[in-house]
Amino acid sequence: MEYKISFKLDFRRNPYPGKFIVIEGIDGCGKTTQTAIVVEKLKAQGADAIYTKEPTDGPIGRFIRQTLRGVLDISPLAIQYLLAADRVLHAQEIEKHLKEGKTLVSDRYFWSAVAYGMADRQGTKYEDNGHVLLAIQGILSMYSQFIMPDITFYLQTSVDTALSRLAKMTKEKELYETREKLEKIYQGYEWLVSQFPKEITVVDGEKTVGEVTGEILNKINK
C-alpha cells in the first residue's frame, strides 16, 4: 500500500548577533576552497570569522570520513544517522559562536543530508520521493532544532566539471565521488533550489575561483 505524504516545514532562524553562512554543492564544486577563502577575506574586513565544516573534525566526524574513504564498510542509512549525530554536536558549537557575535562560514550543513541522502535511494524522480526524504531527514536530523543559516550559497557546477577537478586532486577518492552518485546528488541540489529558492542562493561554480569569491562576498556584504 502506498501513501501520499504532505507536510509543512519551518526552520529555526538565527536570533543571535553572529552571522551564519553556509557553502554547499557537489564534490568538486569548489566549496571547500571558497569556504577557506571567504573566511580569510572576512577576517581582512575586520570580522571575527571562523571556518567550520561537516563532517566535523570531532570523533563522529572522523569516523564518518573513514567510511567515506572506504576504510570502514557500513550501510548508507547508518552513515545518515552518523551525519545526523555529528550535526547535533556541530550545531551546539555553531550556536555558541553565534551568541558571541562571531561569523561562521561552514563547508556544508543540513542541506547536504537531503542531496546526498537522495544519492543512496533508488530512482531519480525527486518530484516523487523528495518530499518523503525530507520528512525522513526531518526526523533523523531534527531540522527544527538547528539554526537556519543567514545565507546558504549553492555552487552550481556540472558533473563533468566536478569530475575533472576531482581527478586533479591528490586526496583519497570518497564514496560519493563517482559519476553515478554525483549525478544524483546534483539532481538533489537542483530539486532543493526549486523547492526552497528563498533559502538557497545559487552561484555559478563554473567561474574562476576569484569570480566566485567576489560574488559570494558581494552578496554577504549587501
Global mean pLDDT: 86
Largest sheet composition: 5 strands, parallel
Q: How many extended strands?
A: 5
Spatial strand order of the main sheet: 2-3-1-4-5
CATH domain topology: Rossmann fold
Count of the separate structural domains: 1
Percent range of helical residues: 40-55%
CATH class categorisation = Alpha Beta
Q: Give the end-to-end Cα distance, rounded to a whole number of Å.
A: 50 Å
* SSE sequence, one letter per element: EHEHHEHHEHHEH
**What best-fitting shape do the alpha-carbon axes yield?**
globular
Q: Which regions have little confidence, pLDDT < 50, spanning 5+ residues?
A: none
Q: In terms of structural class, how would the helical and strand content be classed?
A: alpha/beta
What is the CATH superfamily? P-loop containing nucleotide triphosphate hydrolases
DSSP helix count?
8
Give the C-alpha Rg.
17 Å
Task: Describe the model.
The chain has a single domain (19-220), classed as P-loop containing nucleotide triphosphate hydrolases (Rossmann fold, 3-Layer(aba) Sandwich). The protein has eight helices and five strands, in the order βαβααβααβααβα. The protein has helices spanning 31-44, 59-68, 76-99, 111-118, 126-141, 159-167, 179-195, 209-220; strands spanning 19-24, 49-53, 103-107, 151-156, 200-204. The protein has a five-stranded parallel sheet, with helices on both faces. The mean pLDDT is 86.
Topology:
Blueprint: E1 19-24, H1 31-44, E2 49-53, H2 59-68, H3 76-99, E3 103-107, H4 111-118, H5 126-141, E4 151-156, H6 159-167, H7 179-195, E5 200-204, H8 209-220
Parallel strand pairs: 1-3, 1-4, 2-3, 4-5
Helix pairs in contact: 1-8, 2-3, 4-5, 4-7, 6-7
